[in-house]
Structure formats: C-alpha cells, structure tokens
Write a structure and sequence with these properties.
The complex is a heterotrimer of chains A (201), B (166) and C (394). Chain A has 201 residues and is α+β, with helices and mostly antiparallel strands. Chain A contains 6 helices and 6 strands. In chain A, helix 5 runs antiparallel to helix 6. The radius of gyration of chain A is 28 Å and the shape is elongated. The N and C termini of chain A lie far apart (123 Å). The chains are: A alpha+beta (201), B mainly alpha (166), C mainly alpha (394).
C-alpha cells in the first residue's frame, strides 16, 4: 500500500524515542569530558621522558645520545647535551639533556623515537586533550613538561613497563656485577702491589 | 481625502515612479511590487477586501515572482542595469503631461466628485461567487479556456525547444 | 459567569479591564496594541521552546541525548543560541545588494507575523475577524516567496541564487495544493472567516466533536494540507533548498549573526502559522476533543494541538530522508494536486448525499481509489523494479 513505508519508518523512530528513555543501552553517548572513551593499552599520542625514582632531574634515563632527534621524520625533537655528567639508569656516568623540546604541533605520533631509543628513555603517552590558547609556544613541550615518572609509565602501559623494568634490572645487575669484579680486581691488584712492595722492601 | 488615503496613494505613486526610474532592474521589480502592495491597500481601504487579497495573491505572489524568475534565468554575468534616461525624454514627458491633463479635465468636468454616493455595499466573497457562477458563468468558462490554451501553448513551445536542442 | 467560563475568558476580561483605564480617544489604538503584543511575545517564546524541543526530540529519535549542558536537561539552550546569534559578526559580502540584503529577512519575519492576525486562539480571542480571513492568510504566505528571492538574489553568490530558485519553484508548486486542500473546508463551512469556521466545528454529537478531520474528505484534506505545509516551510523531507549537505544553507548562505536568526525565526513562525491554520480549518481550533472536556480553557486546547502538530513535524523530520528536486516536483504536480481536486469533488458529493453510512462509503472509495491508482502510477513511472544487471561483474 502506498505510504506504508513511511508509517513503518515512523514506528521505528517512535520505538527509538521511547526506548531511549526506558533502556539505557540504547544511548551510547559518552558525556565528555566527564566520561572518556576507554583506550587500549597500546594507545599512543605524544612522547614523554621517563625518570626513575622521585627526582626528575637525577633519575632521567635520557643520556642525550641524539638518536631520536636524528631518526624523527618531521624533525620535531630538539636536544642540547649538558656539559657535565650524571649517573644514569644502569649506574654509569653519562651526559644528560640540558634542553629537550618536542613540538607536538609537528609530531605525528609515529613512535620511531621510542623504537630507536637504546635506553628506554622516551615512551608514548596517552594524553590527547592538550589544547592551549597559544598555537606556537603552547604546543612546544619542554623537558619539565615531558618528564614523567616510571610509576606513571607503569600505570599507562603495564606490560611494557614491567618488561622494561626487568630488562633494566638485568642490566643494572650486570653492571653491578661487573663493577664488583672490577672493584675486586682493583683491590686484588692493590693488594698484590702492596705485597710486592712489601716483599721488595 | 483622509490621511490614510494620502499615505497609501503616496506609497503607490512612489513605488511606481521608482519602478520607472531606478537603474538596477531587480530594484525596479521590487519597487513595482511595493506599488502593487499600495494598490491592494487602496482596494481594502475602499472596502473591497476580496479584491485586495486577490491582488496580493495574484500580483505579488504570481506576477512579481514571474518577473523575477524571468530576470534571474535570462541574466548575463554583470548585474543588469538600465541606461540613465531615454533619449526622447522631453517628448515622453510632454505626452505624459498631455494625457494627464486630458484625463484630469474629463474627470473634473463629469461632476463625479461632487455627487452624493450611495451607501457602500458590503460585497462578500459569497456574492462574488454567486455572480461568477450564475450571471457571469460564460465569461468565466471562456477565461478558463483561454488560460488552458495558454498553458498548453507554453508546454508545447518548451517541449519543442527541448526536442530541438537534443 | 461561572468559574469555568471566567478562566476561559480571563485574557479578554483583563484586556477590557485595562482598556477602561485608557482615555476614550486612544482606545482603538490601545485595543489594537493590546491584542497584538501578546501574540508578538507568545509566538517567539513558542519558537524558542520549539527549537529546544526539536533538538532534544530529534536526538532521542536518533538514540542520542540532545543538548544537555545549558540548564537542566538543556532547556535554557535557546538563551545560549540567542546570545550567540546576537553577538556574532554580521558579515555582508562586498558585492551584495546592501538594501535588499537587509530587507529580505525583515520581509520574511513581517509576512510570518502577519499570518497570525486571523487565527482564533481561544473563544473570542482573535486579533481581527476578517470576512476573508483564510484568503488573507494565503495571500500573506505568497509574500514569503518574494522574501526568499530577495535573500537569494542579493547575496550575489551562485549557491544562494540556485538555492533561491529551487526554493521558489518548490514553494510555488506546493502553494496550489495548499489552497485547494483548504477549499474543501470553505465549501463545507460556507464562509472564509476563520472564526466562523471554528464555530462550525465547536459542536458535539454525543461525545464526539464535529471536527472536519473526522470526515473522509476532511481527513484527506488535512493530510494533503500538512504535506503542502511541510513543503511551504522548507522543512524535512522537503528541505532541499536549505539542505546542509547539498547546498549548504541555500538562499541564506551569506547571512550570519542576527539576520540568520531572523531567517530561522521566520521559517519556524511560518511553520507554526501554517500549523495554526491547519488546526483552525481541520482540527476544530480551540474546541475540546470530547464534550466532557469543555471545562478546560479553550486556549489550552489550541496550544495542545499546536504542540502535537509541531511534534508531528519533528517526528517526520527525524524519520524521512530528503526528497530530490525532481521527485519533489513530480510528487506535487502528479500526485498531490490531482488528489486535492478529487477531494473537492468528494466533499461536494458528501454535501449532497443524505446522512448515513452510504455517504461515508462512497466518499471514502472516491478518495481511496485514485489514491491507489495515482500512487502506483507515480511510483513506478517507467522505472521497473527489475533485477539489476551488471555489465562486467558476471
């Protein structure tokens, strides 16, 4: 019959209308910003620098090797090496970055900097609402804004963080073992030298 | 010569004079529409409500729209304007003044505005309907026939043109 | 006067009481002002309520929330919209016709407001009871087309001119069925005055009212009138002239800020005025639906019916896809117009047949037969519903 399709369509929309008040699963709207859409664990937005422990300056894993700066396709990272050295995550004295800037208006979230970093110092964050009033300075993130603790990293990417922590622990153990054998060898050498000196006297 | 009549007459005259004098063609059509509105208001002022409403319905809703459609569909790239003044404006003004003088003398001489008018008849739409359907049914049918012929002719011309362009 | 009657006539009583305080020379003017000002306040308020109702209603029809940030459940959204449209920059294109560009929305709003002059909102509550009220209403609707043209032309933009041409073509095509669908009521009531038409429907047989919509020709006339009214107000599914995905607002594409709000206001006022006329002609105006409900004030029934029709408009908008231009024109000239003419004949037959079940049957068949025939003829016009053949993918 003519007009039947219209009537059927109107019944469907009427069911939508009354159903949306009765059953809550019809309304799939998320009330942003109070509710957020859940993200998968491997979600990535913009990079951040990881530091171990409490102090962002002392615990920063980045040793200013400039690999991520060179590998970044749109060249959005700027690193300036420091003049002095400090202890890094594996217990060795390394340089650290005095300036570490990422321009997130240029960054394309390709994760290449994360893939090439040999020190697990730069990882991908999951924060996406970074809007500011300033198109240039507001979107240039500096070292203080980029440095986030390892505890935060463990919260956002649990499996990755545990793997990284395990690898770093192994390295640290190796380095400690090496340092112990080196210390023992140095002590033995000192003792042997002292004994030799005692013998010749 | 009440104040209402003066205002409405002024509006009508202003509209029609502007329709003749403006340069932009669309402005001329819109000024002519204003003149139509003034005419409709004058009809209603005289008590002919039906004629006034039909004037709006037919002239503004039909004739003015037809005029603007014609301009819209036949316009070229630049906005359509008219030349400032016609080359024979002296002769034209003389002829118009002469006609106006003759008409004014004729109306004045006939004694129409001195006569006592009978009471204004209240003409309802029902009376107009009865008159059309009883006394004047033949002119009504002839007008309908004429309009149908015009409609069919327009369709024939349009189809013929479309057939040629294929 | 009993309490029920006093509640019904409360506004008339207040107006007469206020008028007594005005000096005698100013009384006609004051009376006119006091009749007009409530309409000028009430219908824009109704427009504001309609905008939020439409947005929330469309949202729920589409399984989502509507605006729910401004005020509880978003009911203060029109205030936010009003502030936004008042504070937005008024951009006029440099090559636009400044005078006509300004006058177009003004003419639209004026024409829309003028239509309310003949609508009886309650018992004895009408701004002016003209002898040719219905004709006045349709004459005023033809002013809207002129305003649409002025808007489209003055913007000097191809999109707006194109949109204006399509809008005017659509409005002209649907104006004839609109008037013819109303002619049936004029035939039945024998008068062009809106007050007399409502009075002719305000009686009851048993508990059922004598509304014209409860007759075969009245029901058909109401359906055809509402279809033509939807097309006249450029509303979905006939909103091709202003469809956002096609022509990006069509004839008011170059308008911003307050003028755009005026266009919006004019369109919605036109929709409400045509709904009000449909209520007056077919749904019995301010008359109550059952004889035991006449104690409720008459203006309440009018606005209840108006809200019901507005909800119907919103429901249709949320359900149907947009009609293409040629589908629209075909629908008007090949289906709606013949149906209105057949409806007039059926109404004439109704008038001259004796009362009883026979005239119901005859008139219903007179209308239903061409409905089915025309429907089949227009929907399967040369395009068979055949299986599609693919040239290369066999």
């Amino acid at each position: 019959m003519l007009g039947e399709g219209i009537i059927k369509g109107m019944l469907v929309t009427a069911k939508n209308f009354f159903g949306s008040y009765v059953s809550k699963e019809r309304l799939v709207t998320l009330q942003y910003p109070e509710e957020r859409a859940p993200q998968i664990e491997a979600a990535r937005d913009f990079p951040f620098l990881v530091y171990d422990g409490e102090d962002a300056e002392k615990g920063l894993r980045c040793v200013s090797c400039h690999i991520c700066e060179k590998e970044c396709p749109p060249k959005c990272i700027l690193i300036k090496k420091s003049a002095d050295k400090k202890l890094d995550a594996a217990g060795k004295m390394q340089f650290y970055p005095a300036v570490f800037d990422i321009d997130i208006s240029v960054c394309m979230s390709c994760q290449i900097c994360v893939e090439v970093c040999p020190f697990d110092a730069i990882k991908m964050d999951v924060v996406y609402d970074l809007s500011t009033h300033d198109r240039f300075d507001g979107l240039m993130l500096h070292k203080q804004q980029l440095a986030k603790s390892n505890a935060y990293y463990r919260k956002i990417h649990p499996t990755e963080a545990t793997a990284v922590d395990a690898a770093l622990a192994v390295e640290r153990a190796k380095a400690e073992a090496k340092a112990k054998t080196a210390a023992e060898a140095a002590a033995a050498r000192v003792a042997a030298a002292a004994q030799a000196a005692g013998e010749t006297k | 010569m009440t104040i209402t009549f003066l205002i409405l007459a002024g509006l009508t005259i202003a509209g029609t004079v502007a329709a003749m004098g403006l340069r932009n063609l669309i402005h001329c059509v819109l000024a002519l529409t204003l003149g139509f509105v003034g005419l409709a208001a004058l009809y209603m002022h005289l008590g002919a409500q039906f004629a006034g409403f039909v004037q709006i319905l037919v002239y503004i809703g039909g004739v003015a729209i037809l005029a603007v459609f014609a301009i819209m569909t036949t316009q070229s790239a630049e906005p359509v304007t008219r030349p400032g003044s016609a080359p024979f404006w002296v002769a034209g003004t003389l002829v118009a003044t002469g006609v106006f003088a003759v008409l004014a003398w004729a109306i004045h001489g006939s004694g129409a505005h001195g006569r006592v008018l009978p009471a204004e008849p209240v003409v309802t739409a029902q009376q107009i309907g009865f008159a059309l359907m009883r006394g004047y049914v033949l002119p009504l049918e002839l007008m309908g026939l004429l309009l149908t012929v015009a409609l069919i002719g327009a369709v024939v011309v349009a189809i013929h043109e479309r057939g040629e362009s294929i | 006067m009993s309490h029920v009657q006093m509640l019904d006539q409360i506004f008339v009583i207040v107006k007469h009481w206020l008028l007594a305080y005005v000096p005698a020379g100013w009384q006609p003017l004051a009376s006119a002002v006091m009749s007009v000002v409530p309409v000028l306040i009430l219908f824009p308020l109704l427009f504001a309520i309609t905008t939020v109702l439409e947005r929330k209603g469309l949202a729920r029809l589409q399984n989502r929330y509507g605006p729910n940030r401004v005020g509880p459940f978003g009911i203060l959204q029109p205030i936010a919209d009003g502030v936004k449209s008042l504070t937005k920059e008024d951009i006029v294109p440099r090559s636009a016709d400044q005078m006509v560009h300004l006058l177009a929305p003004l003419l639209l709003v004026t024409a829309a407001f003028l239509g309310y002059a003949v609508i009886p909102i309650g018992r004895g509550m009408v701004i002016t009871d003209m002898n040719g009220g219905v004709l006045f209403f349709f004459a005023i609707s033809s002013l809207v087309e002129l305003a649409v043209f002025m808007a489209g032309w003055s913007s000097r933009s191809k999109y707006s001119l194109f949109g204006a041409m399509r809008a005017i073509a659509q409005m002209i095509s649907y104006e004839v069925p609109l008037v013819l669908a109303a002619v049936v009521v004029i035939m039945a009531a024998g008068t062009l005055s809106t007050v007399s038409i409502v009075n002719a429907q305000a009686s009851y047989s048993g508990i059922f009212p004598h509304w014209f919509v409860f007759t075969p020709w009245g029901f058909t006339g109401f359906a055809l009138f509402m279809v033509a009214a939807t097309a006249e107000s450029n509303r979905s599914p006939f909103d091709l002239p202003e469809g956002e995905s096609e022509i990006i607002a069509g004839y008011y594409i170059e308008y911003s800020g307050f003028k755009f709000a005026l266009f919006f206001l004019g369109e919605y006022l036109g929709m409400m005025a045509t709904s009000a006329m449909a209520i007056t002609l077919f749904l019995g105006g301010w008359a109550a639906p059952f004889s035991f409900l006449t104690w409720v004030p008459s203006y309440f029934w009018f606005f209840a019916k108006l809200l019901a029709l507005i909800c119907g408009f919103i429901w249709i908008r949320g359900t149907l896809p947009r009609l293409r231009m040629d589908q629209l024109m075909n629908f008007s000239w090949k289906f709606i117009l013949p149906m209105t003419v057949i409806n007039i004949i059926a109404a004439g037959v109704w008038r001259f047949m004796p009362m009883g079940p026979w005239r119901w049957l005859v008139c219903s068949l007179m209308i239903a037969g061409p409905f089915i025939v025309l429907g089949r003829a227009t929907s399967w016009q040369g395009k068979g519903v055949a299986v599609r053949k693919y040239r290369y993918a066999e």
